Amino acid sequence: MIDSHCHLADEAFSVDLEDVITRAKGAGVERTLVILAAGNLQESQQAWRVCDLWPETRVSVGVHPHTAREFAGDPIRAANLVRQQIASTPAARAVGEIGLDYHYDFSPPDVQQEVFRAQVRLARELDLPVVIHTREADDDTLAILKSEASGSIRGVLHCFTGDERLARAGLDLGLHISLAGILTFPKAGRLRETAQIVPLERLLAETDSPFLAPVPHRGKRNEPAFVAGVIEALAELHALPPTELADRTSANFHALFRP
């Protein structure tokens, strides 16, 4: 299994990081993609520790829409910060998470859009996949991707919670779709229906830990070992043994991120 999106560099794991990694390996997790906030020194330092403990780990670096306000009027500075950190991080394999989030008012929408656009351009320049965060901003997210992608782009709609329309639009752009623990929540019936239309060759599984622990761990701190619960839920939806679903999503991860 592979956890295609987690935040092991978050301070939530600073005390027991080694135990968390040991549990993940014991659960059969081959590797993770650790998401780093560009310019965050604490996360960068902890990421080096993660990679020392778990050399198969890979990372993604980006400016999240919540912090886009720090680059108001100068979105190129955001892209350059990401560029520099990727260049100095041997395990870096992607640009992200990047995107748009209109649910919170942390950064003005127009600023988010310009910072997002600059990072999509950077990813195309570096020939790296993008890890996309979109919340209550699907139309603008798709519009920017379409305008910057020249028809297609490598990447993933992470922690997917959208509807069938968003799923099909993302697939048409060439994106993968990654499901997290929300898939296991009792009221996520519509999301489970949407997950069933995602072709197996475009499917990924993630934890987004320390957030969104799947049932039966809901309410607890999430961690990479719990990706097994997401795999089991996806396997049931696609009528496959969990081992086969895990093999398929792992192969998809390798094809996308070229670890």
Word description of this protein:
This protein has 259 residues and is α/β, with parallel strands linked by helices. It has a single domain (2-257), classed as TIM Barrel. The protein is built from 9 helices and 8 strands. It has helices at residues 17-26, 41-53, 75-87, 109-126, 138-149, 164-173, 189-195, 227-237, 242-257, and strands at residues 2-6, 31-37, 58-62, 92-101, 130-135, 155-157, 176-179, 203-205. It has an 8-stranded parallel β-sheet. β6, α6 (164-173) and β7 (176-179) form a beta-alpha-beta unit. α8 crosses α9 (242-257). It starts with a strand and ends with a helix. The model has no long low-confidence stretch (mean pLDDT 97).
**Low-confidence runs of at least 5 consecutive residues:** none
Number of domains: 1
Average pLDDT for all residues: 97
CATH homologous superfamily grouping: Metal-dependent hydrolases
Number of helical regions: 9
CATH topology, anyone? TIM Barrel
Tell me about the biggest sheet? Answer: 8 strands, parallel
Order of helices and strands: EHEHEHEHEHEHEHEHH
Strand order of the largest sheet: 1-2-3-4-5-6-7-8
Structural class: alpha/beta
Sheet-strand content, in percent, reads 15-25%
Helix content: 40-55%
The assigned CATH architecture is Alpha-Beta Barrel
Précis, in short:
With 259 residues, the chain is of the alpha/beta class. The protein has helices at 17-26, 41-53, 75-87, 109-126, 138-149, 164-173, 189-195, 227-237, 242-257; strands spanning 2-6, 31-37, 58-62, 92-101, 130-135, 155-157, 176-179, 203-205. An eight-stranded parallel β-sheet has the order 1-2-3-4-5-6-7-8.
